[in-house]
Amino acid sequence: MSTSAGQSGPNGVVIVGGGLAAARTAEQLRRSEYSGPVTIVSDEDHLPYDRPPLSKEVLRAETDDVTLKPAEFYAENDITVLLGNGARAVDTAAQTLTLADGTQLPYDELVIATGLVPKRIPSFPDLPGIHVLRNFDESLALRKEAATAKHAVVVGAGFIGCEVAASLRKLGVDVVLVEPQPAPLASVLGEQIGELITRLHRAEGVDVRCGVGVAGVQGDDRVRKVTLSDGAEVDADVVIVGIGSRPNTDWLEGSGISVDNGVVCDDAGRGSAPHVWAIGDVASWRDQVGGQVRVEHWSNVADQARVLVPTMLGQQPASAVTVPYFWSDQYDVKIQALGEPEATDTVHIVEDDGRKFLAYYERDGVVVGVVGGGFPGKVMKTRNKIASGAQISELLG
Ligand SMILES: Cc1cc2nc3c(=O)[nH]c(=O)nc-3n(C[C@H](O)[C@H](O)[C@H](O)COP(=O)(O)OP(=O)(O)OC[C@H]3O[C@@H](n4cnc5c(N)ncnc54)[C@H](O)[C@@H]3O)c2cc1C
């Protein structure tokens, strides 16, 4: 595992990736008074931007403004941002990156923040109209087609699939949401909550088909129909594949950096090679019980930056206890999860007005999480109970 960077070194910290994790790491370096060079290397042409709006406001054409920090921020903080020239290899012995155009970039400390690659369905032909959604340009491309589409098929009812279905409905598109599991998000939040999410989408006119997969797509110059595994054929002017993502680590092949469902790190983000760190969706950090956990949620990134950067600089990281959190906006309902709810937990639904809901998750008598749909205040009020490992009886009264 690597040693600390301190303040020295002519090459400074090089961050590979142009998203939230890269931006947060650079910000945190300056906040921690690191005065050496900071360079962000991105394969995208845009300054680091926020992804949550891509399936929400951007897709619905409500905004195009997703940039996390303006160009002036990077200039004022002396942070170099290299765009459109991703890293394609790293030599950890020479402490050098090779960029897509062949440039060699030396580093004192390397932070890997390359996020995820959306999974595709290998048997699908490469037809216009079939989309994945991970970056800004993909959101704009889908938005353009959604403007004239009548029928959409969303494959996969995870968070992104559900949000895309909701946004397309708001745009007036007929949506079939296809999910092989018994209910949306069943493997993450359990079937009970999955049923409530199904109800929400059906109330908005989404044709939710659970327990079926896709068998194929048909088209000519573009996609026209999707055949489901139960033999049903559904019209499709656009198809969105939202079946999950994998860590973006192919470029690390041959580097010797340990990768196993993400870049393997200790509990402060140190990778297996000296002077190598990883953060964000691509990073698998050791947890308190010695397991490896990779989190794909927005708020986790800043939490990790507050640990990784001070550790890298040889400073004491803040030891604030953070309770994991994520949200998903579907129609007017903000779905929020606090803590570590799992599908196998006992779920206590304590509020349900036919649309909005609130549920506590119990494991061995202890409250481990709360999931709310449309109850932001009540979700947040449970934070201390979850952090302190309170008995479920304290919440159920
Ligand atoms: C559509 C969508 C909606 C979301 N909604 C929510 C939400 O509502 N709530 C929530 O909690 N989370 C949400 N998330 C998740 C959240 O956005 C992520 O957790 C967050 O973006 C992770 O940041 P990251 O920097 O690790 O990865 P990313 O934001 O993916 O950034 C990785 C960057 O690295 C670049 N890159 C990849 N390879 C290279 C390379 N070799 N060289 C240089 N650059 C490279 C990529 O192009 C990209 O710019 C959403 C994600 C998406 C895609």
From TrEMBL:
SUPFAM superfamilies documented for this protein: FAD/NAD(P)-binding domain (SSF51905), FAD/NAD-linked reductases, dimerisation (C-terminal) domain (SSF55424)
Pfam families in UniProt: Pyr_redox_2 (PF07992), Reductase_C (PF14759)
Alphabetical keyword list: FAD, Flavoprotein, Oxidoreductase
Needed co-factor(s): FAD
Protein name: Pyridine nucleotide-disulfide oxidoreductase
GO molecular function, one term: oxidoreductase activity, acting on NAD(P)H
Gene3D superfamilies (UniProt xref): 3.30.390.30, FAD/NAD(P)-binding domain (3.50.50.60)
Record InterPro entries: FAD-oxidoreductase/Apoptosis, FAD/NAD-bd_sf, FAD/NAD-binding_dom, FAD/NAD-linked_Rdtase_dimer_sf, Reductase_C
GO cellular component, one term: cytoplasm
